[in-house]
């Protein structure tokens, strides 16, 4: 049995004790702490934390969830981490969120399906249980594919609309994908949809300095929810979003970004397209458009959501340029069938 100190980002420390061969995630849950967690088998990366001291065993995870470089830097997946000594683990979430976050099934009705482009669609669900959902802008839920026992993870692309008890999502259209096929070919307004969550430590923190948001593809979704929240509460600090896609047709929800730019005094955004065949004026990757003025000499909070290659590219870019932001929060996702 080993003692593990969980240091949360709001300065609170909680102590748990692991049983023989028990993972940190299971020990925390047994102790009443809902630290970020989803798949429980080393596949999603939701439970990624940093081990400040101590030794441990950690096997059975995939590289998309934790890269070799991250493992060398003592990052851990608490669902796979079995302590071999007393440990100190830094959790990238506040203690308040981890204590109060309770995942539950939410049953709703499909109220809208909108094909935004060849590669992207949005859908909206509504219902009494949706109205009561408590999540932070940036978090995600697992959505069960109707008619199957499979689920897919999607970030909220809006906050809950209390007037019609609805919430929305963006999804990438994946050829032969379970959810893509259902939404594109089988879904009808009124269908029952089950959500489970919320999950994730990628969420908007209190804004205490300038913010740089980096979105890749449907990684735009959590930022739409964040911006909706910022529109409600305001911000005295500048916020800039760089939205990158592969092809011109992948650019979606530009009208919403324009509306946020008009409604939020300190918000600006730009979009770029990687394809050399693009007719969009700004080409390349988001790293090509990260200007010194967006970084405020490191006094900036960076939020990044996109596919694994984009996340790794941004990480490498910041290391090469010696960029050390005040905080760096990221979530990487891979489209699944």
Descriptive overview:
The protein is an alpha/beta fold. It has three domains: 2-98, Ubiquitin-like (UB roll) (Roll), CATH 3.10.20.30; 102-199, Translation factors (Elongation Factor Tu (Ef-tu), domain 3, Beta Barrel); 211-332, 3-Layer(aba) Sandwich (Rossmann fold). 21% of the residues lie in helices and 32% in strands. The protein is built from nine helices and 18 strands. The protein has helices at 24-30, 68-72, 95-100, 128-131, 178-186, 221-233, 254-263, 292-295, 308-321; strands at 2-8, 13-18, 48-53, 56-58, 75-77, 81-83, 87-91, 104-115, 120-126, 140-144, 151-155, 166-172, 192-199, 211-216, 239-245, 267-273, 301-306, 327-332. The strands form four sheets. Strands 11-10-13-8-9-12 form a six-stranded antiparallel β-sheet. It has a five-stranded mixed β-sheet with strand order 2-1-7-3-5. Strands 16-15-14-17-18 form a five-stranded parallel β-sheet, with helices on both faces. α7 (254-263) links the parallel β15 (239-245) and β16 (267-273). α6 (221-233) packs parallel to α7. The longest helix has 14 residues, at 308-321. The mean pLDDT is 93. Residues 103-205 form the FAD-binding FR-type domain. This is Benzoate/toluate 1,2-dioxygenase reductase subunit. It comes from Marinobacterium iners DSM 11526. Its cofactor is [2Fe-2S] cluster. Residues 2-95 form the 2Fe-2S ferredoxin-type domain.
